[in-house]
Amino acid sequence: MKDEGGRMKKHLSKRSYGAKADVKSALGFILHPSSFILYSSSLILSLILLAFIADFSSSAQSKRRIDAHSSTSREAFSAADQALVERAVGLTCSERVRDPFSSMPIDEMQARPSLSINNPEAIAGARRADRLMPVARKYVALAILKLARDYELYESALNRSRVNAAIARVQAVRRIKPDVDARDNASVWLREPHTIEFGTIFLAGLRSDEGMVSVLAHELTHIADGQTDSLRPLFRAVARRAAARTGLSITGQRAEELVCDLVGVMAADEFIKENVSWEPISRRLARAVEHNCVNDDTSDEDHLSPRSTIRALFALDLTFAGEILAGNKVGRFNAPAAHELFFNQPSN
Question: What is the distance between the alpha carbons of residues 77 and 65, in angstroms, rounded to a whole number?
Fold first, then answer.
């Protein structure tokens, strides 16, 4: 879900899951030589004014640093919170090994040979994506609205219009396009925001409804942001909280990718609530993120490492981590013990 062609979406972006982006930015200015020619009296006055401004700026920066430190303290996690997150990450990845419908880790997907569009696994994945697209659109709209309200970004008329426009773009997406060359990627062209392209390897690697909803929601969130960066304030707000709680560096494109993943987990969670199953919640929710259970856990300029992504997501909402650790529950209810199933059979 990275940009091929840069972060500047206004000029064109293709968001893809797995491909690296070459993000370049330049900022410069040139002082004309005549700017340095000063009369002596003007020079003295300028130096006095410069000293005053520097002193005032230093005081203001000190005040801002204190405020920022206070904000970070409020977001800090306790040792117990951190331990809970780490246990949940470990259980997520161990559950992936036991689950017959688990998602394939993205580093394993990258190592697979290409799959044709007619490959049975790819066909099954494409059908799953088509079937789940309508519910994914619904859950993404709900998640974006909830996050905007939780982060107090739905109060002004301007922010409301941005969020509403983002949700409208999500509702316009209709098509899944399998692509052999995309391999282990999923991507969207923002100039044609009605289609999600899926590599056939990725379609085959997402073997559950929960995993597919999560990835669909990720791509739909990129489309929601659009070429006008409608959700940039939300990306920054969520990233600040995640960085404060984890100590990770989450700025720029990393912020957007993290929020796309967060919306993916929220969408999967809503899907689980509305589709009760006898499978444990921990197993079903793990499917939303277990494609990040890689052995090659590397990061890049635009993404946290896959396992750090899971940590950040659980740190943002400990409820997810708690549900992962509640392995004895199914649907939203406790699973009956084996002896209860035996003794409560209906009599003939």
Answer: 20
CATH number of the domain enclosing 243: 3.40.390
- pTM exceeding 0.90: no
Distance CA 346, CA 326 (A): 29
Residue 6 vs residue 127, higher pLDDT: 127
Q: For residues 211 and 214, give the distance between their C-alpha atoms in angstroms, rounded to a whole number.
A: 5
Binned at pLDDT 50, 70 and 90, residue 230 comes out as very high
Domain-embedded: residue 40? no
Strand segments, DSSP code E, in 155-227 are 175-179, 186-189, 195-199
pLDDT, residue 77, reads 73
Question: What pLDDT was estimated at residue 192?
Answer: 79
Contacts of 324 (CB under 8 A, 6+ apart): 88, 91, 92, 95, 281, 282, 285, 286, 314
Residue 302 lies in a domain: yes
Residue 346 within a domain: no
| Total of domains in the chain | 1
Q: Residue 306 sits in which domain range?
A: 79-332
